[in-house]
Specification:
Blueprint (H helix, E strand, L loop, with lengths): L1 E2 H7 L5 H9 L3 E3 L2 E2 L6 E2 L5 E3 L2 E2 L7 E6 L27 E2 L7 E8 L2 H8 L7 E8 L4 H9 L2 E2 L2 E2 L4 E8 L4 E8 L6 H8 L3 E10 L2 E2 L8 E3 L2 H11 L1
Parallel strand pairs: 9-15
Antiparallel strand pairs: 1-4, 2-3, 2-5, 5-6, 7-9, 7-17, 8-9, 10-14, 10-15, 11-12, 13-14, 15-16
The structure holds uracil.
The site of uracil (URA) has 8 residues, from helix 5.
Length: about 240
């Protein structure tokens, strides 16, 4: 037996938070009766529906996408922009694990496994993310030291980071920096560099939870192997 919101999220229908919203708003029925209380225990043998749709246990699918720039990380967009789901051919309802900005490229995991999504995006999990940032201006090691100790963005200090200079182009007045963080706050990398007086011109995520872009070109994707999924679970359990 599992909590109702967890069963809904694990089915791939929506996130756990969204499932809780549906429950309190009276959109969820268990064996034909509306349940508005959070935490009721059910199993997949109970007949569960959300907004009139029956919940079934789906096969779990795990996709690693090389997100190109100019695509939104969301299931739909009210401005009609292309979304990451437009790049993937699947019959399952997949969700991105975390976000990359419209103009950021790189590793993006998508899945209908609500449990791993919640765990990987939980702020306490310390999942490693490596970004390559192209910065306007010539950055110095001392600037990076400030960044690595933690800077205040949106009223809260960022946790410790690692960073190193990969390249300096004096003629173009740009720098390329590799930076490793363990949080996933909104526009975090851009805000961190802004704090120390630099603008991020280009941003790419090279690593997420040990997964890299190896073998993929921009816009392409592959399925994770069972071994890779097990490793993801071992990182969060
Ligand atoms: N930090 C950002 O600023 N943007 C991203 O897309 C990811 C991390």
């Amino acid at each position: 037996m599992e909590r109702l919101q967890k069963v809904i999220a694990n089915s791939g229908y929506c996130s756990r938070r969204k499932a809780e919203e549906y429950i309190v708003n009276g959109k969820v029925k268990v064996n034909g009766s509306v349940v508005r209380k959070l935490g009721v225990k059910v199993s997949f043998s109970d007949q569960i529906s959300v907004c009139g749709t029956d919940i079934k246990k789906e096969d779990k699918e795990y996709i690693l996408l090389y997100k190109p720039r100019g695509v939104i990380t969301s299931a739909s967009d009210d401005k009609g922009r292309k979304t990451v789901l437009d790049l993937i051919d699947t019959k399952n309802r997949l969700y991105p694990v975390g976000r990359l900005d419209y103009d950021t490229s790189g590793v993006l995991l998508l899945t209908n496994d609500g449990e791993i999504t919640n765990k990987l995006t939980h702020p306490k999990r310390n999942i490693e993310k490596v970004y390559i940032a192209k910065i306007d201006g010539i950055i110095r090691k001392d600037d990076l030291k400030v960044l690595c100790k933690g800077v205040v963005i949106d009223g809260r200090k960022t946790s410790k980071a690692k960073a190193r200079i990969r390249k300096i182009d004096k003629k173009k007045n740009t720098s390329i920096v590799e930076i490793t963080i363990h949080e996933g706050r909104n526009h975090q990398i851009k805000k961190m560099f802004n704090y120390i007086g630099f603008n991020v011109i280009k941003l790419k995520r090279e690593v997420f939870a040990g997964l890299t872009l190896s073998g993929l070109s921009s816009g392409k994707y592959r399925h994770l192997s069972i071994k890779e999924v097990k490793i993801l679970y071992s990182l969060v359990d």
